[in-house]
Amino acid sequence: MAPFHIDDGTGSDTTGDGSIEKPYQSLGLAVLNHGTTASFLIRKDANSTYEEPTQSSLKKAKKTADGLEKKRKKAEELAEREAKEKGEEKEKRDKLWEESKKIVLKEDASLPAAVRAKITGLADLRSKRVRVFGWIHRLRQQKDLIFIVLRDGTGYLQSVLSGELTRSYDALTLNVESSVELVGTLQPVPEGKIAPGGHELVVDFWRLLGVSPGGDDAFTNKLNEQSDPSIMADLRHLVLRGETASSVLRLRSFMLSAFRQSLTSHNIIEVTPPCLVQTQVEGGATLFKLDYYGQPAFLTQSSQLYLETCLPSLGDVFCVQESFRAENSHTRRHLSEYTHLEAELAFITFDDLMTHIENVICETVDILLANPVSAALIKQLNPDFVAPSRPFIRLPYVDAIKWLNEHKIQHPAEDAEGNVIKDEGGNPKMVDHAVGDDIAEAAERQMTDIIGKPVFLHGFPAELKAFYMKKIRDGSGKTTFTESCDLLMPNVGEIVGGSMRIADMDELLEGYKREGIDASPYYWFTDQRKYGTCEHGGYGLGVERFLAWLANRYTVRECSLYPRWPGRATP
Ligand code: 4AD
């Protein structure tokens, strides 16, 4: 019989067959495959010659072969056993499935009638039979038991299914996010165990209303905490079902109600100005333009001008309206569309205005903390939240510039065209702030974070501000400041921008001119100065920014239902 070849260097125990072309790599395997009676030729590597193996190496190889043989047998046995078990399991499963299809669950008519309720209202229905509808938030299946955490938007309910209820076809194929109807008795959870609301629904009848897929399309496969931000944005409609996202939006709803409650308690009434407009408020650079039946029009940047026209008619007014900004800002506090809470007050002073803003904000926070549901949401999202103390710091713009320089907070130098000047290393050349500078977001953020409390920054230079702002006349002929204020909050920065408005007709006409605005489309706004002008002022509060502060969110994008930012208008 021809000898079998082994090449220690280039042979292979997986593809080799012992031929001279395809040698084995180990003598052990060659012995295992062909027995000790076969003849072998072995070499170290391709440069040596084939020789017969020594007796001692043959002995060693025999031992190795025995070990390998044992291993091989064991693996075979295991595979056999597994295959059998699998077959049995499959049989069992198939039987279960077959039987499951025959199970038709029926509600027991002899039981007390179930009271239909939302999860939030269940505390009063302990030990009663209740009927709830919702989505499966969490699902755990155990032998003969199914644990469900049901979600209906008002809360979460731990529920347990047992016996026959767990053996129906729908029970065997149940997935998270399926919609279901659960009927059963509400029982307090045993001491030492916790469940939302402190109770658990012991289900006696249930129905699947809408399936949710398993496999690749399963909800849990589409989304998880590590999902890429752009996937999260595409799947915002599913993200909203999560505990954090829904809590933020729930808090947003309470927050808007609280604002309305505070504002109306000051006799300020709500109006709804238009979003389609033909005038700008905050500068042409951030206008979304559109074709309006052949005429140019814009999406509103602010409802302020309309609110001003309401003063002689309705008195003090506010609105909660979408504002649009076409700025190419990808920061964590900018949206292309945001909810703008704006108010306008007549016959006030600048000091009144800042006091009013402070009151509304503090009252809103107090209302939210006094309501156990919203207080719990704040605790969940922002455990360290404490209501801000009053009065808020009032920091004149000129003092803020000094403060920034004292704290060595600089800003990148710019040339006349607004390009950042670089140093020899290619880094932006940093310079001190000077009166007249627009305090950039980074510096403003550093300042608010160091101060750590709400700060009214006020009295900005006129050239940095919009055409409508009332000027402070200092008689020096130098930089003219305005009666304007920004409210800055730690972690977020500016959440409110407000000012006194120009009440005088000529000053307003000058303002249009300074900003290069054609006054004619503004005739209705100018008319306010013609028909009984008054000292007045107002402000706009970014709802998402306020919420980001309150709920300690990293970005305003988390605080909007379907956020829009440059390049994103879906879903
Ligand atoms: O400072 P702004 O531009 O002021 C106005 O629009 C005034 N006309 C409001 C008024 O006096 N009635 O904007 C006011 C607030 C800002 O403080 C900020 O909270 C928010 O609106 N805001 C934005 N929020 C999210 N994304 C953006 N792109 C925002 N731009 C402004």
Question: What do you see in this structure?
Answer:
This is Asparaginyl-tRNA synthetase. This protein is of the alpha+beta class and 571 residues long. It is 33% helix and 23% strand. The chain contains 15 helices and 23 strands. It has helices at 27-34, 55-102, 169-172, 219-222, 229-234, 236-239, 243-265, 304-314, 350-370, 372-381, 397-406, 441-451, 505-514, 523-530, 543-550, and strands spanning 4-7, 40-43, 115-116, 129-142, 145-151, 156-162, 179-188, 199-210, 269-270, 276-277, 288-292, 295-299, 317-324, 337-346, 393-396, 411-412, 430-431, 455-458, 471-472, 481-482, 484-489, 493-500, 536-542. The strands form 6 sheets. It has an 8-stranded mixed β-sheet with strand order 9-13-14-23-22-21-18-15, with helices on both faces. It has a 5-stranded mixed barrel with strand order 4-5-6-8-7. Helix 7 packs across helix 9 (350-370). The longest helix is centred in the first third of the chain and has 48 residues, at 55-102. The model has no long low-confidence stretch (mean pLDDT 93). It binds 4-amino-1,4-dioxobutan-2-aminium adenosine-5'-monophosphate. The site of 4-amino-1,4-dioxobutan-2-aminium adenosine-5'-monophosphate has 23 residues, from strand 14, strand 22, strand 23 and helix 15.
Short descriptors:
571 residues; alpha+beta; eight-stranded mixed beta sheet; five-stranded mixed barrel; 23 strands; flat; binds 4-amino-1,4-dioxobutan-2-aminium adenosine-5'-monophosphate; Asparaginyl-tRNA synthetase
